[in-house]
Amino acid sequence: MTRPLVQAQIPVDDRGLAYGDGLFETVLVRDGEPLLWPQHMARLARGCRVLGIPMPASDELDGLPALAGPGLQVLKLVLTRGSGGRGYLPSPSATPRLLWQLSCFKPQAQRWEAGVRVRHCHLRLGSQPLLAGIKHLNRLENVLARSEWNDHEVAEGLLCDSQGNLIEATCMNLFWQRQGRLETPRLDGCGVAGTLRAGLMERLSITEVSTGPEVLMEAEAVWLGNSLQGLWPVERLDTADGVLQRRWTLVDLHRSVQREAHELLGYPTDFGN
Question: What is annotated about its quaternary structure and interactions (predicted)?
Answer without folding.
Answer: Homodimer.
